[in-house]
């Protein structure tokens, strides 16, 4: 972009290649530059620890390369400490909202040009609501790592340019990176529109429209839950209905009031067909009518996603409780011994099941910290306080009240369950291939693009059918499919060739096992699937974007 580089450098920014992992010279020079900034000039450096944009408004796994460079002077003893300040930025409405939705569906990111920058300035005339900036508590690297001065003295005799971090130090930095992400998410402000989207989406599952009074009641209850969990909620209860009207006006491209009921702002399929060149889509060329359903649905989901830092683990606990309750009922029906007979045993059983779900979605929701037990107890108390879960102290029997709060929390997790389940089904549909008698059995090889194309085709087909469950338009979002695919790989269900990038099923750990587990979780959800409501809208009269 002509002129932009010079302007940014004058503000104190410096250029960094998107990737330089194979260029050792560039790596060494850049590392020395960072080393000098921290150790000699003591200049604060601002960078984004996730290393890229999050198009789905969720935290990503931290990339600790730049953080490692910033901490190298500390590990070499050049500086006594390095302070990290987590910064959270929250937007009521994001400038790139519509662009992100299109990119999630496969439309390539527009090329950045100076002309395009000035042309895009006209978007500032639109309303974008409030922006919140939160500076978290500073984190001392020395205190976080638990170091004393003697821990790093042994490095002092080695030249800085020869210093490299060892495995133990890299593991410490990864933990610090996770802590930064954790604190950043805690600092995110939950807006009235976030709560509105969360509540409205839960009502779509039961095919129920809502008016402003019902929205106000739902948002008020959600505000209490989030504040109990420790979130910052920017909702003024004294002017709640006014805030609802105002935020709906700001996001009128997603939702609007019609005849006093909240509804999606319909997207014209014919207009999408003219605006979007389907040949440019990264995966499958989606039908315009499917895009018309997916665009507002994904836009709504974007504003639900920031809430998942707080709701993912309570949702896991509800699923675990529903599962255990079913097992207890089966034990009573079969007149066999119940799985657990004391309160403590039931709680331990629930913890194990929550940990299992945590493992499945560990790359989806970045909530890893050393507070797992503390959060489990907090969530258990929350569900009990709001009448969702009761465990008998006499015989450990679980009682679940499927009230409105429980359904909202479960509905927040439902799209992700659908994504992982449908992706597991799609990957398992790739055929197996048997090699010659002189070699071991080998699974067919396939690329990640093969999976994405097949998955989008599959979901498009399912969304056009009438009696299919466990489907959500979010299953079309490429970023989430890539995250889920990476999760399968990290869990050992599929293998990736490092040189070619080709994937194949891992022998000895069938993905069908996970598919069956995910289906069981999906079947525990106490409501219809979202796509049915979307299908109704797909057949409705189109209106302008």
TrEMBL record:
Sorted UniProt keywords: Acyltransferase, Membrane, Transferase
Domain of life: Eukaryota
InterPro entries: GPAT/DHAPAT, GPAT/DHAPAT_C, GPAT/DHAPAT_LPLAT, Plipid/glycerol_acylTrfase
Primary localization class, coarse: membrane
Domain Phospholipid/glycerol acyltransferase: 3-92
GO process terms (BP): ether lipid biosynthetic process; fatty acid metabolic process; phospholipid biosynthetic process; triglyceride biosynthetic process
Membrane disposition: Peripheral membrane protein
Cell wall biogenesis/degradation in keyword set: no
Protein name as annotated: Dihydroxyacetone phosphate acyltransferase
The encoding gene: Gnpat_3
């Amino acid at each position: 972009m002509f002129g932009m580089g010079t302007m940014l450098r004058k503000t104190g920014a410096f250029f960094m290649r998107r990737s330089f992992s194979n260029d050792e010279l560039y790596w060494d020079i850049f590392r020395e530059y960072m080393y000098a900034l921290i150790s000699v000039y003591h200049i604060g450096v601002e960078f984004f620890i996730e290393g890229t944009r999050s198009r789905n408004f969720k935290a990503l796994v931290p990339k600790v390369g730049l953080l490692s460079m910033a901490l190298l002077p500390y590990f070499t003893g050049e500086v006594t400490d390095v302070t990290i300040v987590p910064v959270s930025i929250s937007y009521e409405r994001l400038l790139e909202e519509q662009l992100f939705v299109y990119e999630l569906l496969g439309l390539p990111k527009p090329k950045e040009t100076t002309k395009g920058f000035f042309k895009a300035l006209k978007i500032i005339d639109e309303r974008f609501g409030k922006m919140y900036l939160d500076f978290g508590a500073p984190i001392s690297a020395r205190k976080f790592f638990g170091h004393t001065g003697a821990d790093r003295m042994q490095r002092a005799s080695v030249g800085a340019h020869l210093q490299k971090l060892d495995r133990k130090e890299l593991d410490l930095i990864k933990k610090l990176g996770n802590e930064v992400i954790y604190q950043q998410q805690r600092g995110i402000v939950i807006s009235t529109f976030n709560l509105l989207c969360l509540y409205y989406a839960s009502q779509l599952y039961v095919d129920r429209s809502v008016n402003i009074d019902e929205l106000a009641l739902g948002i008020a209850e959600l505000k209490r839950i989030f504040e109990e969990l420790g979130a910052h909620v920017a909702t003024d209860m004294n002017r709640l209905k006014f805030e609802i009207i105002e935020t709906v006006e700001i996001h009128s491209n997603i939702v609007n009031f019609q005849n006093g009921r909240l509804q999606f702002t319909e997207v014209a399929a014919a207009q999408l067909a003219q605006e979007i060149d389907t040949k440019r889509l990264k995966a499958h060329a989606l039908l315009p009518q499917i895009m018309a359903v997916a665009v507002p649905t994904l836009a709504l989901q974007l504003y639900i996603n920031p809430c998942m830092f707080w709701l993912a683990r309570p949702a896991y606990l509800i699923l675990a409780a529903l599962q255990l309750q079913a097992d207890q009922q089966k034990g009573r029906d079969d007149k066999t011994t119940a799985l657990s007979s004391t309160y403590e045993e039931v709680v331990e059983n629930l913890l194990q099941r929550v940990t299992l779900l945590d493992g499945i979605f560990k790359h989806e929701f970045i909530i890893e910290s050393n507070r797992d037990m503390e959060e489990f107890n907090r969530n258990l108390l929350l569900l009990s306080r709001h009448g969702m879960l009761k465990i008998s102290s006499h015989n450990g029997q679980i009682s679940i009240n499927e009230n409105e709060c429980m359904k909202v929390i479960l509905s927040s997790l439902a799209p992700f369950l659908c994504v992982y389940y449908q992706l597991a089904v799609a990957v398992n549909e790739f055929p197996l291939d048997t090699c010659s008698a002189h070699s071991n059995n080998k699974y067919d090889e396939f690329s990640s693009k093969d999976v994405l194309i097949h998955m989008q085709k599959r979901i498009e087909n399912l969304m056009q059918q009438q009696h299919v469950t466990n489907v959500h338009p979010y299953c079309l979002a490429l970023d989430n499919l890539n995250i889920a695919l990476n999760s399968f790989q990290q869990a050992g269900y599929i293998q990736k060739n490092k040189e070619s990038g080709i994937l194949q099923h891992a022998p000895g750990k069938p993905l069908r096992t996970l598919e069956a587990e995910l289906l069981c979780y999906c079947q525990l959800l106490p409501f219809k699937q979202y796509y049915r409501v979307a299908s109704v809208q797909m057949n409705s009269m189109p209106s302008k974007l």
